[in-house]
Amino acid sequence: MPRFVSYKNFFLLSVLVGITLLVMRFTHLERPQLTPMEAAIKDSLAPVQGALVRIAETFRNGTEFISSLGRLSEENKALKEQVSLLKGQLYLQEELKQENKRLKELLQYQDRYKQNFSVRTAAVIGRDPGNWFGIVTLNKGSKDGIVKNMPVVTPSGLVGKIVAVSQNTSQLMLISDPRSGVGAMVQETRVPGVLEGTTAGTGETRLIHVPKDTQLFDGQTIITSGIGGTFPKGIPIGKITGVSNEPTGLFKTATVVPFADLHRLEEVLVITTIYNPDILPPTEGN
């Protein structure tokens, strides 16, 4: 029996080898044409093969698309950061430009009136929370030569006066504060009056104690009169925007809008020394 099994195995092995050789012969790549069976099999499998190729292509494209989305997201993030950086640089450049313009105007004003008084430039560093429209804090104090009652101006016009001083800071009372009082007059007619602040917080002021028979008109310019000694004569204050009679019937009152923008003060000029309070020529603030 074992001998018979051995012959049987040898016979099967020989058949398999023969079939393999035949397959190799009939499937050789350099044959001029396919066998009928191969052709039939390839034709029947062609649609399936095409579908598989399309599926594989779709999958590959989808994978590449997802990968490209990731790259695009990173590129978009980088571009946004670059845009933010450039915007920040533009904002800083614009801020420096505005600051340079303001400082140039302060220097020009100082040079224009250097024969009349000397000034010290100061920056606004705070406002009184309890009196937002009336008191501001400056970054100059007694060590910088600032003392109480010194006038404060901008190139546009009068701002107020110093009411309190520490070593490094000082408090400026604006002309819009109800406690403020400035000797003033109408530039065109030289009619005197007193300029005081209002309680509305609008930054407006009013000229009071003007005789009833005085002609007051919208658009007239108000300047300092020099009376009282605190403010030099001729500093521009503002323009009249309204006229009314006082309740007593003896005087008129004029609403005056200051030339200086009291709500947006950033740098001011503190008049530290007045050489001659009577030689400052009256000029309009705008």
TrEMBL record:
Gene3D superfamilies on file: Rod shape-determining protein MreC, domain 1, Rod shape-determining protein MreC, domain 2
UniProtKB keywords: Cell shape, Coiled coil
UniProt keyword annotation of Transcription present: no
Pfam families (alphabetical): MreC (PF04085)
Coiled-coil ranges per UniProt: 69-116
GO terms under biological process: regulation of cell shape
Family annotation (InterPro entries): Cell/Rod_1, Cell/Rod_MreC_2, MreC, MreC_beta-barrel_core
Cellular compartments per GO CC: plasma membrane
Rod shape-determining protein MreC beta-barrel core domain: residues covered: 124-271
Function of the molecule: Involved in formation and maintenance of cell shape.
NCBIfam families, alphabetized: mreC
Family statement drawn from the similarity comment of this UniProt entry: Belongs to the MreC family.
Protein name, per record: Cell shape-determining protein MreC
